[in-house]
């Protein structure tokens, strides 16, 4: 008994490998089909065959496309699926109901392809069979249905036949197919909505940057780039401080060679004046102009008066700019220029 089961499994595996290999070979020949390859319908002087399955693949794919058009892919997928299930020793019920459904699926799909498409694309470029995507069977079926039920009726009947054949072949209910289609449509709609929102956001950012760039260009044309004039205002001379002199006290002198330290050690060290460089003043002027431009205030720094404690920047606004708009930006300007505080003095 156990030996009979092992023998049956081995037969299933052998048949599965054969069907799977045939399905893959058929799929490769269909995908790499080239109308210029030699076949029963064409003769080529070029000995080179473009089909990846060789001459056998060229002849086989040409005959299948001529007969059933794009539905030939169903044969490749069906053979591969049956071979895979046989290889896994899974039962397959070949009853009349399912076989009839598969034949109906082939016939109805060829007619649907003939009604919908004018030709199937190929890797070599151009249609496989111009005007006959469903092959000879699809053309005859679609023409017969269109003659009795008109093109609209043919569309309805062929679509119904495809759905019916799928139910008969796969044992999947129509409601399940509708649910799958609804989920697919919902996912596509959600992805499309996200794509549209992302594109809209990117377009808004681009328009804002373009507007700012145009504004800066206009400002540069109206106000050519000029370095502000730096006026060195000398600090007022400090009055020399006379250090207080302590009165001499009658200290007792000790004997020996010891010398007392000088009284200059008790004096304050000279003040070291730190001066801002010209490059720093120019950089601060550009920061000031850029920060004001961010708030829509056009203008330029004309002069800079550096001082020992306070540095004054003379800013000339563009015509039409109100001064009160600048006065309210003291805190923002202090933060941008890294200053302890900014005081705006309006004329």
What does this structure look like?
- The protein has 347 residues and is mainly alpha-helical.
- It has nine helices and three strands, in the order H-H-H-H-H-H-E-H-E-E-H-H.
- A three-stranded mixed β-sheet has the order 1-2-3, with helices on one face.
| DSSP strand count | 3
Low-confidence stretches: none
Q: What is the averaged pLDDT score?
A: 77
Largest sheet: 3 strands, mixed
Helix content: 55-70%
Using brief descriptors, characterize the structure shown.
mainly alpha, Threonyl-tRNA Synthetase, Chain A, domain 2, 3 strands
Short description:
This protein has 9 helices and 3 strands; from the N terminus they run ααααααβαββαα. The chain is mainly α and 347 residues long.
SSE map:
Layout: H1 2-31, H2 54-68, H3 72-87, H4 96-116, H5 135-170, H6 174-222, E1 229-230, H7 278-294, E2 299-305, E3 312-317, H8 323-327, H9 330-337
Parallel strand pairs: 1-2
Antiparallel strand pairs: 2-3
Helix pairs in contact: 1-2, 1-3, 2-5, 4-5, 7-9
């Amino acid at each position: 008994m156990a030996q009979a089961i092992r023998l049956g499994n081995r037969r299933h595996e052998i048949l599965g490998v054969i069907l799977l290999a045939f399905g893959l070979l058929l799929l490769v020949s269909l995908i790499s089909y080239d109308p210029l390859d030699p076949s029963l319908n064409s003769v080529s002087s070029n000995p080179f065959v473009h089909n990846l399955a060789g001459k056998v693949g060229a002849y086989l794919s040409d005959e299948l496309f001529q007969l059933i058009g794009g539905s030939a892919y169903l044969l490749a997928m069906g053979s591969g699926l049956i071979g895979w299930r046989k290889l896994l020793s899974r039962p397959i019920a070949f009853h009349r109901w399912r076989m009839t459904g598969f034949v109906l699926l082939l016939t109805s799909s060829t007619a649907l392809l003939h009604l919908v498409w004018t030709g199937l694309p190929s890797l070599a470029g151009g249609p496989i069979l111009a005007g006959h995507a469903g092959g000879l069977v699809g053309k005859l079926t679609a023409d017969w249905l269109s003659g009795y039920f008109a093109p609209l009726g043919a569309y309805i009947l062929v679509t119904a036949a495809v759905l019916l054949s799928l139910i008969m072949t796969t044992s999947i209910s129509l409601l399940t197919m509708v649910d799958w289609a609804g989920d697919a449509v919902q996912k596509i709609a959600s992805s499309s909505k996200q794509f549209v929102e992302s594109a809209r956001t990117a377009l808004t950012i681009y328009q804002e940057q373009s507007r700012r760039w145009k504004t800066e260009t206009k400002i540069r044309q109206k106000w050519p780039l000029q370095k502000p004039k730096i006026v060195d205002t000398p600090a007022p001379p400090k009055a020399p401080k006379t250090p207080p002199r302590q009165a001499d006290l009658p200290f007792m002198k000790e004997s020996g060679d010891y010398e007392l330290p000088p009284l200059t050690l008790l004096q304050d060290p000279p003040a070291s004046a730190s001066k801002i460089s010209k490059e720093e003043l120019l950089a601060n002027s550009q920061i000031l102009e850029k920060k004001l431009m961010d708030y829509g205030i056009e203008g330029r720094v004309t002069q800079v008066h550096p001082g020992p404690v306070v540095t004054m920047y003379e800013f000339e606004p563009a015509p039409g700019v109100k001064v009160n708009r600048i006065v309210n930006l003291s805190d923002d300007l202090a933060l941008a220029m890294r200053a302890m505080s900014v005081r705006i003095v309006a004329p």
